[in-house]
Every structure is written in C-alpha cells, then in structure tokens.
Amino acid sequence: MRDEKDGRMATLLAGLKRSEDDMPLSSEAIVRLIKQHLNCKNSSRLPVLIVAAAYRAAGDKIGERALPLKSHNAADEQTGAVGDVEICLINDDQIVTVYEMKMKRVTVDDIDHALKKIATAMARVHNYLIITTDTVDDPVEDYAREAYELTGGTEIAILDCIGFLRHFLHLFHRLRIAYLDAYQSLVLAEPDSAVSQPLKEAFLALRQAAEADE
C-alpha cells in the first residue's frame, strides 16, 4: 500500500513539471484551484496552510515571518499558542499578528474568546484576524470592531478566506507561483492525520488539470 501511494504521488508530481515556455497560472486560476481544494472532504486544516503559505512566499518582502505551525490536533491551551498562525517581525520573536481559522460562521462568543486570548498573551498583539469560510454577519463584525478601544489598541477583524487569498495574490502578483509552490509544499508536508493522503493527491490532480487548461 505504501509503494502504491508513493507511486501515485510520484506520477502526480511528475505531471506538474512545466517548461519555461509554459504560461504560468493566473492569480484567478490559483484562487479557483485552491477553492476547489477547500471544497474537498476533510479540508479543515487547509485555511491554516493558505495563510501560512502567504507568509512563506512574501515574508522577506514585508519583513514578517510565521512561526512553525502547531499540530492540527493540539489545543491552544496545551501548546500555549495564541492562534492557528502566529506572525512575528523578522529577527524578533514577539507575536504581532494572529490568525484564527473557522470553518463556520463566526459568532460573538468567538470574539469574546479572542479577547480572552489577547488579554493573557505574553506581549501585546497588534492584529487578531479571524479567517472564516462562511459568511460574516454585520452585528458580529461591528462587535469585533469595538475591540480596538476595549483592548487599548489591538484590532480584531473577520476576513473571508477566499477573499484574503484573492487579495494577497493580486497584491503580490509576481509571487503567485511562489505562493502556489509554498502552499503545495505545506500541504504535502502535513501528516496524514491533518491532511489526508486523498486530499494531498486531490490537490496535485487539481493543479495538474488547472495547468493543462492554462
């Protein structure tokens, strides 16, 4: 079974080799590709990787870096993490931005939970961003906006996952393939308990199909 799995992965990876004359995927094609991947089963880890890949691709440009990701199954209380993706300035270990992922609609309770995390953080967090794959309700967004004064300067905002991805790819348009490669690397590096083997193979197949269409 392991040999069969390795053989399938090798075949899929070989199918992704491009020549220098091939036209790279557009930003919108990459958005469509990753959106298709998000729609696959058992994809709850993927929003974390979507954000982490952005900092892997553009971190040197913006002077920020993501800390190593914690285990998918580990609770923040166990690891001491403030969120799912924690961002520091280059050459500094102080967390300045936190991303928390929700594969559901964000509620007021989620904002209250974020406020508790901010209050107990070792240092002041500047931005606490909640990434959701669902719609955002105006009252909850308004409640999050009030956090800036309540916390003395920490902003809480709710962002749509695909909207975040689309904006990043167009802002850093020349890094779009570097981003896609970073996302692929993170997906394949995850243990099967976080990103299943079928989900890894699905991404490679989807990318191969997207690049063939392009």
Explain this structure to me?
The chain has one domain: Trna Endonuclease, Chain: A, domain 1 (3-Layer(aba) Sandwich), CATH 3.40.1350. By secondary structure, the chain is an alpha/beta fold. Helix 5 links the parallel strand 3 and strand 4 (127-132). It has helices at 2-14, 27-38, 46-62, 76-79, 108-120, 138-145, 147-150, 161-171, 176-189, 197-213, and strands spanning 64-66, 85-89, 95-102, 127-132, 155-160. 53% of the residues lie in helices and 13% in strands. The protein is elongated. Strands 1-2-3-4-5 form a five-stranded mixed β-sheet, with helices on both faces.
> What string gives the helices and strands in order?
HHHEHEEHEHHEHHH
Overall mean confidence score, pLDDT: 91
Low-confidence stretches: none
Strand order, main sheet: write it out: 1-2-3-4-5
